């Protein structure tokens, strides 16, 4: 009798010494249709064979240029998108094929904070209803307890609990992002995908939200996958940083090590392209300015995907795809001719 | 010594909305010398774009330039008729915008659009203008420009479109190029390409450049002088190195401390600017930054500080630093 409504049983007990999230060979392709019959003629290889581990309580930063697949990867690992291939082990259990009730209970463990605080909040819902909706869906609180919980959540993200009856348009961008964060926290998740959470905000507001996310992480022991194109922000908030290019992870390393000693030529040129707010440093910097644009994810280059723009590419790079190899304990890069 | 190329004096541009009067630009003055690169930094709503649009006379109702002069080549642009202004716009002063997708016309070939200023201002024939367009497209680094000039904007990537926009601005070799957030919509590796191109243009054509951006890193690498705006006013200006090394306005000081730096050695919590950007319809009394300012004194909430010299090379609109107080080292 008791086994009917129990939480999904784990195949094997997961311990916090193992990655909370472990992704292997993950692919997410989107069909491209064309012609009168709208037949599928090709696929966008948005995520094309990614291996990643994230430890409990860690922030893994994910950087890359637009179209590299970082947002798709973030959405796929929490099953907002169905993977095309590969495994996603969350707390030891493969969640890649979960559906129905099992998927719904997963939504209490993994949530998301979105980029655009203007588009991600329903303008006709009050703040209370926006933050309370996850509580209703999962039947977590009702009536007085529900309202108390919403007020508590608003307080936690630094909003006046008295705002509960107000509408999103009455708030600034930074305040709206706080509402989105409160909504993501409502179900008491252990894993949050933050998808460009500050890039739509004013510069003077960005630091407020970064500090809030850091405070919440230590308070609730959260694990973050932090997606952004701004490597300065990602390096600041992350324990480790993964660099993506055309659907593949090119390099993973602790942020400061990645900055001091990038091994992949793509990481090197990405770092040198980022302006540092100091005129004296900027003047003396040597830049590796990449030529051309990112290749098409519909038809990615053979071998290493970066070779078409890589200043170090050799004929061999077109023939074989370099695997992610270890460069020290926490540092991996996928390159046959790495930087020193 | 010849005077400045462009002089803006006490410019005020306001938008008359049903909710009230928005003082988008509220008494801005600055000068731009020939061949110089000037950065205008500020957040959304600080008035940096409206300042540029006012210089170009591109403000449309409910907005209006209510006061001030924009002196260029002995003439006040603010007083010119629309047809006189058309002779300046694109000929002597060109502007490029943030979003190259919406500022290129999707139904015309890129080559015609890039060559259009030559037909308008120089009366060149279509064929000649097209040929010039091809050579300018080559200069801004468009590969096989002869073929690409026959493409439509949607065939171009974001970075290529921004190159085409810059090419359009350069066909008439203007004296002033105003670039309004030219790289904000682009990826960093493409941003680096475009900034390099703007540097080359400034060096080789001697085009004075006004670069409007919210990105302090871009200013640090690009501009000789910087002007910081907040709530429609210039709060600080000076040589870029001096402003970054020892800011003399608390807003600049706070902004520089609040942004994460790629080259930071240790992980320390960021020091955010507390509070919210001001409501431009209902500005705080006195200095608009005083409610968020960690150094504010009583006078700051009462009187608006003028922009005055602080130190050897900088101007700041701040009662605290004008009285001789130095802001602590970050």
Description:
The complex is a heterodimer of chains A (340) and B (330). By secondary structure, chain A is an alpha/beta fold. Helices cover 31% and strands 22% of the residues of chain A. In chain A, strand 4 and strand 5 form a beta hairpin. In chain A, helix 3 (127-137) runs parallel beside helix 5 and helix 5 packs parallel to helix 6. The longest helix of chain A has 18 residues, at 203-220. Chain A is globular, with a radius of gyration of 21 Å. Mean pLDDT of chain A is 90; it is low at 1-7. Chain B is globular, with a radius of gyration of 21 Å. Chain B has helices spanning 48-55, 82-88, 100-103, 110-122, 126-139, 145-148, 158-170, 188-205, 216-222, 240-245, 250-258, 319-322, and strands spanning 6-17, 20-32, 37-41, 63-72, 75-76, 93-96, 176-180, 208-213, 225-230, 233-239, 308-310, 314-316. In chain B, helix 4 crosses helix 5 (126-139) and helix 4 (110-122) runs parallel beside helix 7 (158-170). Classes of the chains: A alpha/beta (340), B alpha/beta (330). At the A-B interface, helix 6, helix 7, helix 9 and helix 10 of A face helix 8, helix 9, helix 10 and helix 11 of B.
Nutshell version of this structure?
By secondary structure, chain A is α/β, with parallel strands linked by helices.
Secondary structure: elements and pairs:
The complex is a heterodimer of chains A (340) and B (330).
Chain A: E1 21-34, E2 39-54, E3 59-63, H1 70-77, E4 85-90, E5 93-94, H2 100-106, E6 110-113, H3 127-137, H4 143-156, H5 173-185, E7 191-195, H6 203-220, E8 223-227, H7 231-237, E9 240-245, E10 248-254, H8 255-260, H9 265-273, H10 279-284, H11 315-319, E11 325-326, E12 332-333
Parallel strand pairs in A: 3-8, 3-9, 6-7, 7-8
Antiparallel strand pairs in A: 1-2, 1-4, 4-5, 9-10, 10-12, 11-12
Helix pairs in contact in A: 3-4, 3-5, 4-5, 5-6
Chain B: E1 6-17, E2 20-32, E3 37-41, H1 48-55, E4 63-72, E5 75-76, H2 82-88, E6 93-96, H3 100-103, H4 110-122, H5 126-139, H6 145-148, H7 158-170, E7 176-180, H8 188-205, E8 208-213, H9 216-222, E9 225-230, E10 233-239, H10 240-245, H11 250-258, E11 308-310, E12 314-316, H12 319-322
Helix pairs in contact in B: 4-5, 4-7, 5-7, 7-8
């Amino acid at each position: 009798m008791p086994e009917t409504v129990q939480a999904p049983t784990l195949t094997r007990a997961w311990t916090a010494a193992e990655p909370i999230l472990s992704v292997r060979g993950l692919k997410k392709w989107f069909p491209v249709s064309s012609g009168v019959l709208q037949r599928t003629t090709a696929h966008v290889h948005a995520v094309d064979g990614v291996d990643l581990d994230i430890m409990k309580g860690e922030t893994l930063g994910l950087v890359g240029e637009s179209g590299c697949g970082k947002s798709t990867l973030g959405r796929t690992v929490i099953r907002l998108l169905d993977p095309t291939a590969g495994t996603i082990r969350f707390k030891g259990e493969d969640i890649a094929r979960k559906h129905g009730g099992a998927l719904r209970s997963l939504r209490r463990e993994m949530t998301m904070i979105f980029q655009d605080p203007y588009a991600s909040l329903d303008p006709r819902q009050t703040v209370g209803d926006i933050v309370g909706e996850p509580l209703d869906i999962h039947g977590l609180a009702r009536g007085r307890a529900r309202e108390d919980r919403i007020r508590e959540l608003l307080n936690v993200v630094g909003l006046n609990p008295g705002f509960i009856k107000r509408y999103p348009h009455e708030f600034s961008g930074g305040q709206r992002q706080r509402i989105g964060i409160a909504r993501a926290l409502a179900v008491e998740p252990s894993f949050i995908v933050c998808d460009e959470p500050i890039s739509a905000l004013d510069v003077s507001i960005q630091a407020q939200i970064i500090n809030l996310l850091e405070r919440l992480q230590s308070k609730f022991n959260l694990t973050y996958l932090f997606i952004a194109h701004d490597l300065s922000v990602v390096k600041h908030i992350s324990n480790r940083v993964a660099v993506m290019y055309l659907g593949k992870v090119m390099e993973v390393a602790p942020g400061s090590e990645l900055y001091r000693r990038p091994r992949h030529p793509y990481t090197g040129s990405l770092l040198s392209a980022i302006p540092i707010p100091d005129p004296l440093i900027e003047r003396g910097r040597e830049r590796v300015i990449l030529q051309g644009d990112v290749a098409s994810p519909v038809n990615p280059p053979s071998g290493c995907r970066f070779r078409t723009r890589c200043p170090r590419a050799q004929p061999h790079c077109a023939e074989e795809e370099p695997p992610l190899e270890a460069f020290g304990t926490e540092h991996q890069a996928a390159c046959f001719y790495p930087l020193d | 010594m010849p005077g400045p190329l462009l002089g803006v004096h006490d410019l005020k541009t306001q938008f008359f909305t049903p909710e009230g009067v928005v003082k988008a630009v509220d008494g801005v003055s600055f000068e731009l010398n020939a061949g110089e690169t000037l950065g205008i930094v500020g957040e959304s709503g600080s008035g940096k774009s409206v300042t540029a649009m006012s210089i170009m006379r591109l403000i449309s109702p409910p907005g209006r330039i209510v006061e001030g002069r924009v002196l260029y080549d002995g003439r006040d642009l603010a007083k010119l008729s629309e047809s006189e202004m058309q002779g300046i716009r694109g000929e002597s002063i060109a502007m490029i915008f943030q979003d190259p997708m919406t500022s290129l016309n999707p139904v015309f070939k890129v080559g015609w659009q890039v060559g259009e200023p030559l037909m308008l201002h120089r009366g060149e024939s279509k064929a000649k203008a097209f040929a010039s367009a091809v050579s300018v497209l080559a200069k801004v680094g468009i590969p096989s420009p002869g073929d690409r000039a026959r493409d439509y904007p949607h065939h171009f990537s974001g970075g290529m479109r921004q190159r085409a926009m810059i090419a359009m601005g350069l066909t008439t070799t203007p004296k002033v190029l105003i670039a309004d957030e030219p790289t904000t919509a682009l990826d960093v590796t493409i941003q680096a390409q475009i900034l390099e191109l703007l540097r080359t243009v400034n060096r080789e054509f001697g085009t004075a450049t006004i670069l409007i951006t919210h990105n302090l890193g871009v200013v640090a690498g690009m501009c000789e002088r910087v002007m910081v705006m907040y709530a429609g006013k210039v709060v600080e200006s000076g040589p870029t190195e001096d402003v970054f090394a020892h800011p003399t306005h608390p807003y600049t000081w706070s902004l520089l401390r609040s942004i994460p730096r790629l080259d930071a050695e240790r992980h320390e919590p960021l020091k955010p600017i507390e509070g919210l950007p001001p409501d431009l319809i209902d500005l705080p009394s006195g200095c608009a930054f005083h409610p968020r300012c960690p150094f504010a004194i009583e006078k700051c909430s009462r009187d608006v500080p003028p922009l005055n010299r602080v130190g050897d090379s900088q101007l700041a609109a701040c009662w605290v630093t004008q009285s001789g107080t130095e802001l602590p080292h970050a």
